[in-house]
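Holo prediction. Input below; ligand is protoporphyrin IX containing FE.
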Amino acid sequence: MLAMSQMTAEFAKPDNVPADLFVPGSIWGAWGGNPHEEFKQLLGGRNIVFLQEHYHAGHSSSGTWLVASAEANRQVLMNHEAFTSTGVKVFSRLLGNNLVFFPVEVDPPEHGKYRAILAPFFKPASATAMRDVLVQRVDEMLDVLIPKGGCEFVQEFAKTFPGSIFLDLVGLPRDRAPEFLGWAKTVTSASSAADKRAAMQRIGDYLMDEVKSRKETPRDDVLSHIVNGEIDGRPVTVEEATGCAVVLFLGGLDTVANQLGWTFRWLAEDQKMQDLLRAEPTRIARANEELLRYFSAVFLTRQATRDVDLAGVTIRAGDIVACALPMASRDGREFENPDVLDVDHSVRRYLSFGFGPHMCIGMYLAKLELNVVVERWLSRVPSFRVAPNYEATSSIASVISLDRLPLVWS
Ligand code: HEM
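Structure of the complex:
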């Protein structure tokens, strides 16, 4: 499960880290079938710990804080003066610094101006307007999968679907979709950092070409709107618009893919629930809310701009801080029976989409995607279960993801 043995002798615990909060070795990488429970056990109720290794290779040679409690996570995410978002994301590390990854890497107050460019496309009504396209994309994929009698859900559906929705969302041509989705799969699945970087570079180059052509000749699509937008009365640059396109693409890729993986494993393993939701589809939206809390999966990164006290420790200027939203969404101080998945529970205030100014702008679209996928699958695919002898394994990086999910229709 954990690669604790990787502890390197030469790593010295920073002196601002109390001994009982220090977690040696690397916790990132391969985990078992129930990583949320296993992770929670590792934390043992601590509000914050210090990990020897940060999850972005090469990101921080001196470890990272990992914030676990809901309260401390909110404090970090609300305090951009002490905890900046600039330059901390994995894609800015992969693609270099000439792009501006707005809105996610821009701190307030500038952040609000950038976010305003995107806001019209992410209102609840804008998401709802995409319902027919979502249904069409799921149905096209099911037309291929259903006759096969089963599929490896993670690769054949979960990782491809959100990338195709991104193309629809921003108005990119579908004829290059297979090539584009191939790169997207490499970004989310490749084990080699060099392969990931190369695929990311291709995506960045592709999006920059599309942005440039829309700067010259605007069309009636979201990408044209972004590149022809204004910030403080000056035009958005090609580098800003490309960075934003990368953020939109990645923001909805691993996150939705991974949520789908956990949701479908749960459905495949709980035949009674699957039958119930198939018979009563109006319950799906609420079930997805609880699944979003229970299988909350995203880790966020910030960097301390100054020395600051948090959850009883002093974080030093320059320290990297990872917000463990999966742990915050299962915090027993906020939720009754946090480790019980109760699809009939009234919606609980969870942190899966973040908190504060950067809270996920794609939240309504994401929820609609999840609802449409579950609805279409339950209505079109016969009862399904996990393939015999399946043993679940998972990985923890910037999201907690299920590695494989072989399904068979029964
Ligand atoms: C289950 C699916 C999703 C989850 C769990 C999720 C989670 C998150 C989280 C936790 C943040 C906060 C980032 C931070 O504070 O640094 C965020 C921001 C963001 N998300 Fe999502 N997301 C999902 C789907 C989507 C989708 C479908 C899109 C759009 C296509 C999207 C676009 C964005 C963008 C643009 C931001 C940056 C917002 C800002 O900085 O103001 N997300 N998301």
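Residues 83 and 304 are 5 Å apart (CA to CA). That is the main takeaway for now.
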